[in-house]
Amino acid sequence: MKKISLLTVLLLAVLFTNAQKKDTVEEKFRSLPNINYEIGPRINNEFLDQYLGDKISVPNDAIANPHKYAVAALHIDSNGIISNIRLFKSYSPQLNNQITNVFNELPKLKPAYNEGHNIAIDLAISIWFGKRKSTDSTITTICSDYSPDYDPTKDYSNVFNAVEKVPTFPGGNEALGKFLSSNIKYPRQAWANHIQGIVYISFVVDTDGSVGNLKIVWSPDDDLSMETLRVMHRCPNFIPGIQNGKPFRCMYTLPVSFKL
Hints:
Number of domains: 2
Largest sheet: 4 strands, antiparallel
Distance between the termini: 77 Å
Mean pLDDT: 86
Radius of gyration: 21 Å
Structural class: alpha+beta
Low-confidence stretches: 6-17, 156-161
Number of helices: 6
Helix content: 25-40%
């Protein structure tokens, strides 16, 4: 009986310790004062998470390490100056040192952008190791914005499978394409420099169909990003997603093509 009681106490202690660690990361993240932006910080036209993914090497214990991923945080002011680099979640002493060194060696960035202005932000970035696509043969370093509700080691490729009906633009994809083509004005500078490509923008379609929380996920050029944001701020309401017969708040990612 004593052995069972002791095992129970030890199990509860482990669970409590793990909960404390999780809460610590979440609490630190929730204490960050400025986390909202429409365009994230960039190095030239490369987004910070992409740059970090190229610079941070995959550790030898990427599969076996129980910590799975690290979370690093930093402050970037409205001029692109970096400060207050720290770790919210540790991975291993060796990787922690590598992450700190890469962050400390970052050059001045293009600052984050929101609603027409360069802004100061506080970023928390998850750093993990896996395959970008299921067909990939090698493991790479993948960086993304940290979220308490998002485990970067899980596969979210079928996130909408449980939703009875995904959000749709009134009139369908053809109508959405017409809305974009009739409202987008090709930026002059991008036109002059023969810049083209696809801008990926994510947003939330709320239960009333309204579009919010706009964020550029990837873009070949800042001017194309800003034009995409300008048009999507004017986007009419979608027909919301449906889950269990009721309107459901959904994330939506839209590719917007700019072609000369």
